[in-house]
Amino acid sequence: MEILAKGIYKRFSVKWIIKDFNFEFHSGENYGIKGANGSGKSTLMNLLFGSLTCSRGKIIYKKNNQSIDASAISNSFTFAAPYMNVYEHLNLDELLEFHLNFKSLIQGFDKEQFIEFCYLKEYRNAFISSYSSGMKQRLRLGLTLLTQSDVVFLDEPSSFLDIKAKSWYVELLRMAKKERTILIASNDIQDFVDLNAEIEL
Predict the structure, then answer these.
(1) Domain boundaries defined on the chain
(2) Which residues of 24-52 are buried (b: 16+ CB within 10 A; e: fewer)?
(3) Do the beta carbons of residue 146 and residue 126 sit within 8 Å?
């Protein structure tokens, strides 16, 4: 899937966060969105994902050279960010059963393999609310990268991860990126893996 950003602006109250952003994100490529805190990385990601609307400009989605209505893209995208909520009142088995009612895991993974790969087997019966910040972030990344989608959005993906988990993230990303468009927003250079292009905000 391709994403075309054409002259997009975003304002919150009187402050412009994004000004005249233009870019074409091509299918199957990895993009790094860089910038200091407050530069608009998360805002841009949420605009491209469709959870925020542009103050000006437009975003066009295409698949096989055909335009797709923004209302029909939700099943084509997955998104992970440390500020995104998980269903903390569920345990892991319940969460995955709920998730898999709507989306499928990538080829080669079932629920048991997901749990094993994310190092969460011994915590499968615990409520997500009892998980550490690092465990929750591994779960977010697993759900985002191991779920079938055309485009993956990763906002500050290594937040809360220790050294071992950061190596796991790189392994996961390299394994799951095949034929997908990956957008990574971060001010940590270690979050960027095998980029095709970089965007500085």
Answers:
(1) 2-200
(2) ebeeebbbbbbbeeebbbbbbbbbbbbeb
(3) no
Q: Kindly give, in sequence order, each residue whose CB lies less than 8 Å from that of residue 194, ignoring residues fewer than 6 positions away.
A: 30, 174, 177
- The residues, any chain, with a CB within 8 Å of residue 188's CB and separated by 6 or more, are 156, 158
Which CATH entry fits the domain spanning 2-200: 3.40.50.300, 2.120.10.30, 3.60.21.10, 3.10.180.10? 3.40.50.300
Question: In sequence order, what E strands does 13-161 have?
Answer: 15-25, 30-34, 56-63, 66-68, 77-80, 151-155
CA angle 3, 186, 174 (to 5 degrees): 70
Give pTM, 2 decimals: 0.95
**DSSP state, 159?**
T
Q: What are phi and psi of 197, to 5 degrees?
A: -160, 155
**67-99: b (≥16 Cβ within 10 Å) or e:** ebeeeebeeebbbbbeeeebeeebbbeebbeeb
| Residue appearing with tokens 């199957």 | 28
The reported pLDDT for the residue numbered 75 is 87
Query: Sheet holding 15-25: strands in order across?
Result: 15-25, 2-12, 56-63, 66-68
Residues of the chain below pLDDT 70: none
pLDDT digits (tens, 9 = 90+) for 43-82: 999 999 999 999 999 999 999 889 999 888 888 999 999 9
CA–CA separation, 180 and 33 (whole Å):
17
User: What is the SS3 assignment for 21?
Assistant: strand
